[in-house]
Structure formats: C-alpha cells, structure tokens
Amino acid sequence: MPRFYTLRLLAIIVSFFLLERTSAKTANIVLILADDQDIQIGGMTPLKKTKALIGDVGVTFTNAFVVSPLCCPSRSSILSGKYPHNNLVRNNSFEGNCSSNSWQKIEEPQAFPVYLKKAGYNTFFAGKYLNQYGTSKAGGVQHIPPGWTDWMALVGNSKYYNYTLSVNGVAELHSDNYEKDYFTDLIANRSIEFLEKKSSSPFFMMLSTPAPHSPWTAAPQYQNSYNTTKAPRDGSFNVAGKDKHWLIRKAKNPMSDTSITFLDNAFRKRWQALLSVDDLVEKVINKLKELKQLDNTYVFYASDNGYHTGQFSLPIDKRQLYDFDVRIPLLVRGPGIKGKVTNEAPVLNIDLGPTFLDIAGINVSQTSMDGDSFLPLMTSSGHKVKWRSDFLVEYTGEGHAVADPYCPSLGPGVSECFPDCVCEDAFNNTYACVRTHSDTKFHYCEFADSESFVELYNMTVDPNQLVNIKDKVQKEDPALLVKMNQRLISLQSCVGSSCRSPSHRFAGR
Q1: What is the rounded distance in angstroms from the CA atom of residue 52 to the CA atom of residue 57?
Q2: Which of 55, 153, 237, 369 has the highest count of CB atoms within 10 angstroms of its CB?
Q3: Are 391 and 491 in contact (CB under 8 A)?
C-alpha cells in the first residue's frame, strides 16, 4: 500500500478513536432523585414504568446506601461527594449546617456541578435542593449555588402545592391549581422545556421530586390508587426493639390500632404520590428519545434516604441506622450498560458525584471528594473491579430543649413524636456505624450517649437486624469488637482517597 494511503488510513483510525473518546466524555447525565423513598419495604412497587425504562435496560444496584439517613445531610453528601464528618452537615437545621453560610462558602464551590459546568455542560436543577434553601438565613431566593446554568429550586422542604421557587434567583409563587402547580408535574414539564432548548450541548439535569415525602399529596387521578394497600407486616414490623438503643426500646409494642391506621394511611399515600414520579421518568425518557439523545445519556434513579412504617414499632420516619432507612433504590441506564443486570457492590450516595465526573472525563482524584466512581462497575465487561469492602454511616440526632406539649412526660431532648408519643429522634440519637461487605457482612454501630451503647448485627444471617449480637460477641470473640471499633475510628477520620479503602473485588456488569 502506498505511503500516502497508509497515512490517510492511520489518520482515519486515529480520528475514529478520538471521536469515540470525545463521545464518551460528552455523554449527557440525568439524575432523578426521590425524597424519602425506601427500597426495603416495597417503595419501588408503584414505579413500574421506571423499572421498565431504566432497570430493565440498565443496572440495578442491590446494595445502594446513604451515608446519613436524613434529607439535608444526604443531599449535601450527594452534592459534595463527602461524608458528613467532612462536609459538616449534621441535620436539617440551619444551625446543623444545612444550606448555611459555611456550606455556601466552603462546600458549594467544590460540588460536582461546578466541575461539570467547567467541562462545558449545561446544568439544570429542578426541585427540592436543601431543606433550608431560600430562607432569609440562607440568603433568600437570590442565592444560586455555583455550577448551575439553569436553576429552579424549592424554598424550604417538600411541598406539592402552595410553595415558592427560586427561578434563576427570582421568586416564583405557586398556588393549588393542579394543572399549573402540582410540583412533581411542574418539575417534569420544566425539564422538557430545558431539553428542548439546551440538548444540543452536553447537559446534566438533576430532577429532585417532593414525592414520596410528607404531606404525601397525590395527583387527582391517583388519589384512589392502592386504596386497600397496607404497610407490609413482615420483617421487623411491630417487633419490640428490646436489645436496641433506648429510643427504639421506648417505642410502644405492640403498636396501638391508632398508630397502625396512621402508618397504613401514610404508606398508601406515599405510593399514590410516587405514581407521578413514574410519569415524570416516562416523560423524560420519551423526550430524550424524541431528541435522539437517549442513547448518549446516562439516566440515574435514586433516593436521598430510605423510610420505615412500623419497623421496630416506629410509626413513620427515617433517621435510624437500620437498613430500612439507609438502603435506597439505585437504577442506571446509559451508554455501555447492558440491560437487566444486578450488581451487589456497596455503592453510596457519595459516589454519585464522582461517577458524574468520570462520565465527563474528570478524575475524582482532582477533587476533595470521599466517594468513588462506580462507572467501571457498570461498564467493565467480564472482569472484576476493585471496590470498597466497607463504609461509614453517621448521624447527629436532633431534639427540643423543652418537652413536647403533647407528650410532656417524655421531658426535653426528643423530637419527631408521633401517635402514642413514640418519638423518632433525640439529641443523643447520635451514632456512627461501619458496614462490612466481604465474606461476612457486619453492621456495627456506636452511640454518643451516656451508655456508650453498641449495636452489632450479622447481616448474613439476620438481614432484618432483629438480634443485637454485641453481648454474645463480647463473650465469644471480643477481638471482633475491637477490630470493628478500630475500623470505625479510622473511617470517622478519613478524608478523600483514604475513605475508599480497603477494597474487595466485585463483578462488573
């Protein structure tokens, strides 16, 4: 072959590989984030279209967790890619660093959207941001976090009607008209408008729905759905937490008929509200397909934390260390991902940001994030990927300085009290846990209270965390407790790359 043709062929081959690499780096990304959606007690059941449009054509992670089971700490960890001990967001209050001046000054400039925007992405946020966002203390609606080219954020906590938005820094008031104001649908419609205008360039969309967070307001067409559904009665439902932290031991067991009726109603309404989220997913996927962008778009579906309805006789809430509160759904579809795949590797909400950056061609080592990209777990065909073998869960409890007026006998220090004066939180409901994922799966937790209370579960044989084996292990294998304590201390002080080891090998797709 003449030299001219050889060089020309070589140039074509090089151009092809450069094009492929560029295409991989400029893939679009969509994150659909539900609010308080569990996986442990059937939270994905209403999302039939979501499972078909994302899970069935992508990967479902069966061990996806949050590093703190509460809205603002979890969302802050998603944005920053950091454990709470590094981003310092402790709870939903402004004083707990939720959308505080410190958060805005230190963490927001390092959040993943900043990197994506610098890499040339159009970035769109729609929905609930952080619980204190838009309040006067947090800078009002004028504050737009860096990294977002288009901004539509809810002021305060989840609502479905009668709310205020910050639309690119300008207040937009909404009333109670379903067609104009129902928030889940509004997020869907505004996302379609964004795609129609901005899909010619690589884009990132974060769609943060209010559902299924309270007040669990369903769209009119779904208010009679699941009208005979009740919370599942299996696992730890209505089980006394006799060997657990004092807050769990205080829960009334068996639960009263009043409490059970209350939680069944909440469970039903949560599923009803989720049907609109299912519609949102369908609308977004269909629009991506119409714009011929679907094949070049990664679509992630996740939640900010889990939830419980009657587990260990706790009526409704999150915040606890157990799997029903820390496990979340995580489904992903996109380029290079095969369909109907399940992956058992422990993936965390702090891994979402690094994964988005990896898709954009940005190495997480260039950031201060604690999480890691799980893109290789989704696209590495036929070989095992080096991945973490344990992780940290941490939570700082909240309580009131004065007694709850409806439950005065409980005294000060508790909060989130429900029917029959069962309280879901307290100042000393503060804990840190290490979860192992190797041959034997342990869940080890220490409380910062006067008892220095410890809970330990063998998740391999006790997935519902019914039996605290701490005392048994103390007698039979005290070295295990020492080992777990030392690993917990290490994780509580980890920063960046030190949070991502030791490692185990998990299968790719």
Answers
A1: 7
A2: 369
A3: yes
How far the first Cα of the chain sits from its last, in Å, is 41
Secondary structure in 3-state letters for 236-276: CECCCCCCCCHHHHCCCCCCCHHHHHHHHHHHHHHHHHHHH
Q: What angle do CA 288, 294, 298 make, to 5 degrees?
A: 110
Closest-CA residue to 92 (of 126, 69, 125): 69
Is 433 designated active site?
Answer: no
Regions of the chain with pLDDT less than 50: 1, 3-24
| Number of other residues whose CB lies within 10 A of the CB of residue 200 | 9
Tokens of 14: 């090089």
In the 8-state DSSP scheme, what is residue 480? H
Cβ contacts of 187 within 8 Å, gap of 6 or more: 126, 127, 152, 207, 208, 209, 280
Name the active-site residue from 71, 423, 445, 499: 71
E strand or H helix at 181: helix 178-181
Residue with tokens 């410190």: 102
HEC secondary structure over 289-344: HHCCCHHHEEEEEEECCCCEECECCCCEECCCCCHHHHECCEEEECCCCCCCEEEC
Kindly report, residue by residue over 201-260, the tens digit of the pLDDT.
999 999 999 999 999 999 999 999 999 999 999 999 999 999 999 999 999 999 999 999
Question: Is-contact 291 309, C-beta < 8 A?
Answer: no
Contact 423, 409 (CB under 8 A): no
